[in-house]
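A common beginner's mistake is to predict each chain separately and then try to dock the pieces by hand. The better habit, illustrated here, is to supply every component at once so that their relative placement is modeled jointly.
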Amino acid sequence: MAAITRSNKSNIPISFWPLMALTLLGVGLAIYRLVVGLGVSTNMSDHYPWGIWITIDLFLIPVAGAAFTISLLSYFLGREDYHSIIRPAVLAGFLGYGVVGVLLFLDIGRWTQFYNIFIPGFINLHSFLEEVSLCVTLYTAILILEVAPVFLEKWGYKAPIQWINRSIFVIAGAGVVLSMLHQSSLGSMFLLMPHKLHPLWWTPSLPLLFYLQAVYTGLSAVAIAVRLVWRAMGLPIDRMLFRRIGQAMSINLMLYAAIKVGDWMGAGEVPLLLRPDAFGLLAWFQFLIGIILPLGILLSKLVGHTSGPFWAGVFALIGTFIERLVVSWVGLAEPNPVSYIPSFTEIFITIGMIAGAFLLYGVVVRYFKLFPDPKQSHA
Amino acid sequence: MTLSRRDFLKAAGLAIGGAFIATESAQAKPDPNEYAAMLYDATMCVGCNACTNACRQWNGTAPETDDRLLYDAPKELSSDTWTMIQLYQGENDTSFVKRQCMHCVDPACVSGCPVQALQKTAEGPVTYDQDRCIGCRYCMYTCPFHVPRFAWDTAQMPVIAKCTLCADRVQDGLPTACAERCPTSALIFGKRGDLIAEAEKRISENPARYVDHVYGKDDAGGTSVMYLAGVSFENLGLQDLGTKPIPEISEGTANIILPGVLLGAPLLLGMIRLTAKRGGWEDTWPL
Amino acid sequence: MLESNVQEAAISHGVSRRDFLKFCSMMAGVLALPRSYSTYIEQALAAPKRLPVIWLELQDCAGCTEALLRATQPTVSQLVLDVLSVDYHETIMAASGNLAEAAKEATLKAGGYLLVVEGSIPQADNGVYCTVGGKTALQLLEEAAANAVAVVAVGNCASFGGWPKAHPNPTGATFVSDLVKDKPVMNLPGCPYNPVNLTAAIVHFLTFGELPAMDDLHRPLFAYGARIHDNCPRRGHFDAGEFVVAWGDEGHNKGWCLYKMGCKGPVTFHNCPAVGYNDGTSWPIKAGHGCIACSEPDFWELGIYNLADLQQYAPPATYAPVQLPTQKVDPATAGMIGAVAGVAVGAAGVAAYKALSKSDEEAPASPAEKK
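With all components supplied together, the output reads:
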C-alpha cells in the first residue's frame, strides 16, 4: 500500500496524485453515466444485463467481509491477538462497502427511485436481492458505528465513544448476523437460475459456499492488507496472529472444497470437469489456484512463514474472483450470446472508486490512529 | 447486566421478524386453470407476423431497424418488441415459434424482484409497474426464457419491457391483441384449463402431426402461454426445464436461512459471549 | 368486307397508328413478353392471315360470351375477331337455324380452324341434358374437335366442369380436356374468364403459330402463372396483419386484406390483379369482396367464406432464426480472462515462490526499522 507513509512526515506522498486523478476521473464518469444513461455509457445489453460492476461488487463484498470475521473473532471469541487489526479491518470493510454502494447505485437503471427498496409495502422478502440490499444498507450503518471511534477520538467526542463501546457486542453481533445473511444471500441470488448458470457452479448449497468463501476471503484480505501495511510502516510482524489467520483460512477453505466437490459428485457433474471446454478449464483453474494452492501453503509449515498466509490469501482471492466472475457473467447461458467487453466508462468508474477508497484509507492512516503503538501489541 | 438484556431483546426482535417471514409465504393461491392463457400451435403458424404487428399497434411500440438494416424485422425481443416469430429450419423439418413472456404460474421474475414491480395478478398475466421498478435487471437474470428486456437507450427512467398478456384488454373481457389478429387461429386465447384440454385433444386426434407434449402444462411449474409443435421443443428454443417451479428452491432456502440465521445466530452469539473467556484486553478499551 | 389485316382494319375504323402500336405493346404486356416483342406482334397483325374460329356454347350460361362482348378496347378486339373470321357463334352470329349449321359444316370440312368451347359437357343419360340441333353436346364436341387446329376452353365450365359439376352433378357434367385427348387444349378458366387473356392468347397464336406455354392444367402461364395473393394490391395489409373481420367495418373501409372474410387469393392462380375486368374497371378484391377461386378446379368445394389454406410458404432467408440459449465463453472474453488470469497467476506464482523459499524474517519483537 504505497499510499501509506510514516505519520511524522508532512509532505504528500507521490502516490497521492495518480490516485486523486483516478478518483476524480471516476467521479466525473459517474456523473456522465447518470446523465446519459446506461446504454450510452456501458456495454451492457439484453444478453449481458449485468456487467463488471456487479462482478466487482460480488468480489468486494466478501473482501470487505474481513470486518465481520475479525469482529467475531475479537469481540465474541475474545481473541486478543486480533485486537490490533480490528480498526484496519473495519475501516477497510467500511470503505469496501462504500465502493460497493456507489457501484450498485450507478448500476441500477432507475436510480431516482432507489429508495423503493426500503418502502415496507414494496419489499419482497422472497427476493434475495432485496435481502442483500437491506442487509448491506444496515451493515454499512453498523460499520459506520464500528469505525466511528477512530474519528471521534481524534475529534474529542468522548460520550459517543463510550456509548459505542458499551453497545459493541450488540453492534458487532448485529454486524455478524447481517453479514452471515447477506454474504450467503449473494449466493442465494443465483438459486433462481438453475438452468441458466453452468451446472459446475450452480448448486443448492450456493448460500453456504458463498458464506464460507466470504469468511476465508475476508481473512485473506486481512492477511494481505495487514502484512503490507505493517511492512510499509515498519511495524513488527505478529507471527502468531498470522498463523492463526492462516489456520482459520485453511479450515474454511477445506469446508468450501468439501462442499463443492461433494456437490459435483452428488449431482453427477464430474464428467463436465473432464471435458476440455472453457468451463471445465475454468473450474479446474479456480479449484487448483484458488483452493488447492492456498491449502498447500497453509497446511504445510509455511503457515508459520510471515508470507505464507499472505500468498495463500492472494491465490484464494484469485479463486474468489473467478467464482464471482463466473456466476455473474461468464457462466450464464444466453441465446445468441453477444460478447461483452466492459466500456471505458465502466472500467474507469470502477478503478476510480477503488482508487478513492485507497486514497481515503491512506488519509485515515496518515491522520488518525489506526494501528496500536508498537509497545501495546502482544506476542 | 444491561448488555445481556439488550442482547436478549435484540434476539427476540429478530426472532419475531423471522417468524413473520416464514408465515408470509403461506398465502392462498388462485387455481392455475382459471388463469387467462394462450395456446400457440406451431404447426398452424405461417409466420405472417400479424401478431407482432397487432402487439405493436395495441401497445404503441415503435418499429425496429437493427444492424441488418431491414425495416421492422427484429431478430429477437427487445424493449420495443414484446412478441415476435422466429423460424427454425432443420434439415428435414421447419417450424415457426412465437416468442413472448410465458406468464408462468410461479414466475422466477416475480420471486426475485426486490420491490415487487413484477407481480402475478389473480387473472393470470404477470404485470410490470414502472413506478416501483428500480431498474436492477435481476428479472432479466432469473427468467429462464430470457424474456424481459431493458430500454438501454433511454437515458433517464428506462423501463423493463415484456408482453403483458394484454392485461388491460383481459380485464375488459377481450382476448389478447395477438390472438385476436392471428389469421390462421394458430394462436388462441382462453382459460388455461380449457386450452390444456384443447391441446391434448389435438394431440390425441392427430398424433402424427404433433410432438406428444403440451409445453407449458407442467414445464417450470406451468406457464400460461403454452405450445404445441410438430418438431422437438428444444429446436424451438423451449428447453426442458423440469416440472418444479423455478422459485421453489430459492424460496425454500429463504424460508430456512432467514429465520434460521435471524433466530439462531443471535442466540449463538449470545451463548458464545456468555461463555467465552475474557482476557484482560477489555481493560484496554476504548481502543 | 373484311380488311386484309388487323392494322388496315384498325386504321380504316379510325384507330390511329399510334393507338394500334399501343395495343401491340399492351398485348406484349399481357403475354408477359419483353417489350421488344411488340414488334413481332405488330408484324403478325399486319400480315394477311385469316384464322377461322368455331365457338361452341354447350352447357353454359353465356357469361363468357358476355364477357367477351365487354372486352377491352372493343373496337380493336372485335377487329381481331373479325380477322379471325368467327364462322360460328350461336349468340352473336347473324344467321340462325339451318343456315348457321351449314356455315359450321363448311368450316368443319375445310379444317384448320380454332375451336373455342364454352360450357360443360353433360354425359349423364347419354348426354340428353344439352342438345343443339338434335345433337348432344358430346357429339358436337367430338365432331368439332376432329379437324380443329387447337381447342380453347373458355370459362371454368369448359375448363374444369364449372358449377354444373358441383355435387350431386345431376347432368354428369365434365370438361373439354377430359374428353379431347388428341388435340392441343388450352384452358382459360374463370367465371367468367377474362377476355383480355383470350385476346392475348390469340395474338400469341397469330404471332408464333402455337399456343403459349401452359401449366399442368393446360392454363397459359402468362395469365395463370402467379397466385392472386402474390400480386394482390392488399398484400401489404396481409403482411401487416390488417384484416377485415366484418363487412363494413373500419378495416373494410380502409381496404384491408380480406383473408379472414374467406378470400381465396392464396390458392388461386389468375391475373385479375394485373388486368382487371371490364376494361380494367375493377375486380372482386378491388370491389371489396374476397376472391372465390373461380379459375380453380372444384372451387365451390372450398366454401366461399372458409379460410384459404396457407400451407405453401417459403420464409425469406432474412427471417429471424430461433435463438437457442448456449453456454459458451465467446473467444474475446476467453482471451481476455485467459490473458489477465495468466499474467496474474504467473506473476503471483513467481513472487510467491521467491518469498516463500526465502528463509523467514526476524523475530516479531525486534524494533521497527526506519526507512
